[in-house]
Write a structure and sequence with these properties.
The chain is α+β, with helices and mostly antiparallel strands and 331 residues long. Helices cover 50% and strands 18% of the residues.
């Protein structure tokens, strides 16, 4: 029965203990001179609690901790792999952005040079616009005179004028129209000549922007022989080293041989301009006061903290500075 089932809870509170029967003390004997024995003492003994049910579940705890540790390590490995891939992607994107930035800077400088050439031909272009306006005015005048001649001819026919009068009116109209046509033809020829000059100037400017780059000393000498520009070689053996060519001083700021880029300072016209992160054999254009076209700086040798290259200027812009042909006359 349930009341007789010993359990740990009953044992803990002493409910399973067999009740101890208290033995009544014997009746007191008549007074006797002999000493009375001490009253008996009773001690209650509680049974120890039995095993707690479910205590065997503690064996699964170490396995659970191990599984959590393995899962944490796997998550950490995945996070580290994702972070490494993100860093590689960010590095590639930064390199691509630097390349695009250098190309944009080069395009801006070439556009500045082309704009300077446009300023040289702006006066001719203004003359072309004036001549075109004059041609339009002449065309309008011819049209009006033709309408007047036709009106006069119709009036003459309506008035039944003689054939001589009609021929005279028509001859006068033809003479006027012929003179205006001659003026218009001359204006068209002038316009075509001016357009041809402008096209040639634009072609020369584009050719100058797309000029050859010398990568060695021999190529530079060959370029100097066939071009209408002067070339000056320079070497900067260390950081902060400077070299003056005419009115321009070049100062080395830094180099990056791994990426083949360099940074320099250009000092001219009381200005100090930085040109940074330009590539090997990449032309650097800039304008100096008094020059008819842009100056061009090219670095064709790049080392750790050192660069070598040349400066290209319009012919005779630095008359008192020895160019590459003057340095080696026999070359």
């Amino acid at each position: 029965m349930a009341d007789k089932d010993p359990s740990a809870g009953h044992s803990m509170f002493g409910l399973n203990d067999t009740p101890t029967r208290r033995v009544p003390a014997p009746e007191e004997a008549p007074a006797s001179p002999q000493p009375q024995p001490a009253a008996p003492q009773y001690v209650l003994v509680q049974q120890p609690p039995g095993p707690v049910p479910g205590a065997g579940g503690g064996k699964a705890l170490p396995w659970l901790v191990a599984a959590l540790a393995v899962l944490a390590i796997a998550n950490l490995v995945m996070v580290l792999m994702a972070r490494s891939q993100f860093n590689d992607y960010a590095t590639k994107q930064a390199d691509a952005l630097n390349l695009i930035t250098r190309r944009i800077d080069s395009s801006d400088e070439r556009y500045a040079q082309l704009r300077g050439q446009f300023q040289v031909t702006s006066e001719k272009l203004g003359m072309t616009q004036q001549e075109l306006a004059r041609a339009h005015a002449l065309s309008t005048e011819i049209q009006k005179q033709q309408e007047t001649a036709v009106t006069q001819l119709n009036q003459a026919i309506a008035q039944k004028a003689s054939a001589d009068e009609v021929n005279k009116v028509q001859a006068d109209s033809n003479a006027k129209i012929g003179g205006l046509s001659t003026d218009l033809a001359g204006t068209k020829q002038d316009l075509a000549a001016t357009k041809s000059e402008f096209t040639n100037a634009l072609t020369g400017t584009k050719g100058e922007l797309n000029g050859a780059i010398a990568r060695t000393h021999d190529e530079l000498v060959a370029l100097a022989h066939k071009g209408d520009r002067d070339y000056f070689e320079f070497t900067l053996p260390r950081k902060k080293a400077t070299q003056k060519m005419g009115t321009v001083t070049v100062e080395l700021e830094k180099t990056d041989p791994k990426k083949n880029v360099f940074s320099v300072f250009l000092n001219f016209d009381d200005k100090r301009i930085e040109r940074s992160n330009h590539g090997l054999n990449e032309p650097v254009f800039f304008y100096v006061q008094g020059a008819s076209s842009a100056l061009e700086l090219v670095v064709n040798k790049l080392g750790k903290d050192s660069v070598s290259g040349y400066l290209s200027t319009p012919k005779g812009f630095f008359p008192n500075t020895t160019n590459v042909l003057g340095q080696r006359p026999g070359a």
